[in-house]
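Minimal example, chain plus 6-O-phosphono-beta-D-fructofuranose.
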Amino acid sequence: MKTKKRLGILTSGGDCPGLNTAIRAVVSHATLTHDWEVVGIPYATTGLLEGKTVPLSMHGLDLHGIDPLLCIGGTILGSINKGDTLARINEILAGYQALELDALIGIGGDGSLAILKELQSKGDWQFIAIPKTIDHDVALTERVVGFDTAVNTIVDALNRLTFTAASHDRVMIVEVMGRTAGHLALQAGIAGGADIILIPEIPYSIQEICQHLAELRDRNWRRFAIIVVAEGIRIAEDSTLQPACEQPTCGMGQYIADEIRRCSTYPIDVRVSVLGHIQRGGIPSASDRLIATAFGKAAVDLVVSGHTSLMVSWQNGRVVPVSLDLVLAKSPLLVDPNSFLVETARCLGIYVGK
Ligand code: F6P
């Protein structure tokens, strides 16, 4: 017999730093302030399908008062970012019913939130979303859980790679995540002192890249270069090569390296580093912890006050609710080629494409 209102929480899609911090905030606020019971749903909709829950409380672990959830990466609930979720919709709805949940908080990116929204309307769930993604492609929010830590991870890699590139007069290509949106590459590239940033939203030319590299060298600015490549960039219009396998997200750093070797007018030493899932790991930054905590608190308040089908969103330094339908209609959020940040990069002499 249930004695308290029961709130479910799940994490869905690719993991990122800050998910556990958000779970912690939800559990703390819901249990201590509102006296709700909170249960974790393992592996997103798989947990609903299988009718599984994990009890979550603020005093579940005896770690001498230390709370690891604040600062460990990944998600203690597990996650899925593929699956036949919508094909098994009726089983998921039945699973949700059986768990006797009064409401659900889902932490996810645009793909997961679209699936959860579909389930919410079919099952008439009380559902509130918290946006997370290292790609920063969820619309209608200025900040999301996970992006800041990933940017810091890339900037740290760029710092390290700059020294070794400089020591050997090399062109260092750093491939970062971002299948459709180039926010990670653009922001980390600017903050990490890149010479060239290639993102999916802006076309570029191999010829112009080679000219830019030659100019850096001929004008004696520097004899090495750092190129940040988002994994989802398209093949250049003036390309003579194809990537080693099918697009999207297939060795685009290596492809740019091969093209540079081909078109350079002087002997050039190029190396490629693919950062891969390193970008998804790590201890959440202070900023991600703050966002996750504020989002978790706000999501619980929306649940307790009876709202549904909303996403918590960061706008002008505050957390406000926005309609999940509106968010999904406007996602994915891409880099605006005319944005202030693109202009800033260009004004610093960074080649960002045409
Ligand atoms: O959507 C987030 C993301 O990190 C993308 O940038 C990346 O292409 C993808 O996840 C990788 O997903 P997986 O974990 O399935 O390899």
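The radius of gyration is 22 Å. Residues 146 and 199 are 19 Å apart (CA to CA).
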